Amino acid sequence: MAPSVYSYPALSVLRVNQRTNMIKKMWSRRSRQCFVWALFMSFGASGCSPASLENTPFMGQSSEEIVVRATEEDWGLVEGRIKEAYDQELDKLSMGELVAQIGLTFLGTPYASQTLDPIGDEALVVELETLDCVTFVETVLALARVVNFLDVDDYRRMSKEQVRNAYSERLVSIRYREGQLDGYASRLHYFSEWIEDNSKLGLVEEVVSGHLATTETEPIDFMTTHPGAYWQLRNNPALVAEIQEMEANLSAKPRPYVREKDVDEIEPDLLNGDIIAATSSIEGLDVAHTGIAIWKEGRVHLLHAPLAGGVVQVSERPLAERILALGGQDGVMIARPIGR
Fold first, then answer.
1. HSE (CB half, 13 Å, CA atoms) of 46?
2. Of residues 265, 290, 293, the one with CA closest to residue 278
């Protein structure tokens, strides 16, 4: 039976502050392109770490190895949302419901593209005031993984710095290949690889729907056939070659997906919080859009950050009807978040 949970968290002081910060940032964004660079200390650097952090190994880079680009406004949103999740006892929810409920707190957040690509060396960008479809999914999943991983008592003993470290480590593990930030090419640029890599790390489980699943074998090469669209690839043959090798590896693997005409049949199997990747019919591109499954009035809708509409929203049409109505999208891949 389809889940029935669908509730918008009440607006809080955090949400009011977010709107204020967003307005400030929209007015002055270009004048504040110099981000705060921070090399964060490890968990134990500022005192006794919570017991669960000492005893549980983390798969990925430690915070002391991660260079972060963030503003204090964005860090405030990270800290506030994590606190709010514990205050509302969202840590008691299943991982999928936790992802869904945290995702809903972003309703109305403005859309912005290329937030991960400021000029300079590759670094972990922490950006919550504006989002695109992929950074929305990554941000929500990273927040949910912090809340799911830490017992509330451990969280309450953590310093501000430790909370930031916990979020940074989880975001790196989600966004970069094998959880290691090692330059531009280490970022999971293609979402089919994102699903594969996060599945290997045990962060999500790819959902393949039996006889309705088919495989895509068309080559992936959009980045290297459009290098001018990426400032990192312009006039950088060595990096283009590195990306090209990655694309060849991806192209050699079949990619399971459900065709658009069959999405309505798999709808009963979807859960709140499932990550939905709409496959692309554009040559060389695997995925055109991403979002989070939300059950609403007996149907699955898409919680997402669309370019059209300009803010994070729940789709008016159910997922199955929406994808049939859109050009450039011809099916879905599904990844289910996994909790501890």
1. 15
2. 290
How many angstroms separate the CA atoms of 239 and 242, rounded? 5
**Contact (Cβ atoms closer than 8 angstroms) between residue 150 and residue 166:** yes
pLDDT for the residue 263: 96
Question: Which tens digit of pLDDT belongs to each residue from 84-127?
Answer: 999 999 999 999 999 999 999 999 999 999 999 999 999 999 99
Q: Which residue, among 273, 277, 292, has the nearest Cα to 147 in the 3D structure?
A: 273
Say how far apart CA 307 and CA 144 lie, in whole Å: 24
Q: What is the pLDDT of residue 15?
A: 41
At 100, the amino acid letter reads A
User: Please, what is the average pLDDT of the chain?
Assistant: 85
What is the DSSP track for 255-302? EEEEEGGGHHHHGGG--TT-EEEEEE-STT-SEEEEEEEEEETTEEEE
Distance, CA of 320 to CA of 278 (rounded, Å): 11
Under DSSP, the state recorded for 310 is S
Cross-strand partners of 39 = 67
Complete domains list, the chain, with CATH:
13-192 (1.10.3670.10), 202-337 (2.30.260.10)
Which of left, alpha, beta for 316 (phi over 0: left; psi -120 to 50: alpha)? alpha
Residue 247 contacts residue 221 (beta carbons within 8 Å): yes
Burial 137-160 (b: 16+ CB within 10 A, else e): bbbbbbbbbbbbbbeeebbeebee
Note the pLDDT tens digit of each residue in 237-249.
Answer: 999 999 999 999 9
In tens, the pLDDT along 276-311 reads: 999 999 999 999 999 999 999 999 999 999 998 899
DSSP string, 182-194: -SGGGB--SHHHH
Residue 31 is predicted with a pLDDT of 33
What CA–CA distance (Å, rounded) separates 193 from 287? 10
> Which helix (H) or strand (E) is 230 found in, with range?
none
Which among 262, 260, 336, 254 has a CA at the least distance from the CA of 293?
336
